[in-house]
Amino acid sequence: MNMLRWGVILPCALLAVAAKAPDAPRPPGAVSCIDSQRYTGHRSDGKDTIIFTSGLRTYRNHLRTECPGVEKLNSSFGALETEPWGSQLCEGDFVRVFDTTGVRSVGIAAYPRCVLGWFEPVPTPPRQSKPAKP
């Protein structure tokens, strides 16, 4: 009877693992990597999104999961450490947020590492034209 139970439970458990939710579809223009040497800024756009500025382009990175502490990037006390493989920051690379508020008393507090997802280009708003002089 014990073997019969495992014969039913094990295949059901394997089906549950295989039935994972599909990843969100990538929008048109999404890229896997950006040049890590050219990005000049970052900020949070929710618990699972980081906005990277790279030259004149801006990218929204959809992290693979919620990232603890990522909202600290919007304050002057948040710092981001990236762990790229090579000269590009790519999907699958790790990032970590640090809270620098307690440096003098307890050292820098580090949050767990998070995994980058794909980079979606953020369209730049059109420039407003100046009205013609009469």
Q: In percent, how much strand structure appears in the residues?
A: 25-35%
How are the strands of the largest sheet arranged?
Answer: 2-3-4-10
**Helicity range of the residues?**
10-25%
| Contiguous uncertain segments of 5+ residues | 1-22
H/E series:
HEEEEEEEEEE
Number of domains: 1
C-alpha end-to-end distance: 93 Å
Radius of gyration: 21 Å
Secondary-structure-based class equals mainly beta
Query: What would the principal axes of the Cα set say about the shape?
Result: globular
Number of discrete helical segments = 1
The count of β-strands is 10
Main β-sheet description:
4 strands, antiparallel
- The average pLDDT score comes to 76
Structure, described:
It is a single chain. This protein is mainly beta and 134 residues long. It has one domain. Helices cover 13% and strands 33% of the residues. It is built from one helix and ten strands; from the N terminus they run αββββββββββ. A four-stranded antiparallel beta sheet has the order 2-3-4-10, with no helix packed on it. Strands 5, 7, 8 and 9 form a four-stranded antiparallel beta sheet that branches. Strand 3 and strand 4 (57-62) form a beta hairpin. The protein is globular and about 65 Å long. 16% of the residues are buried.
Spell out the blueprint of helices and strands.
Blueprint: H1 2-18, E1 33-35, E2 39-44, E3 49-54, E4 57-62, E5 78-83, E6 88-90, E7 94-99, E8 109-110, E9 114-115, E10 119-122
Antiparallel strand pairs: 1-6, 2-3, 3-4, 4-10, 5-7, 7-8, 7-9
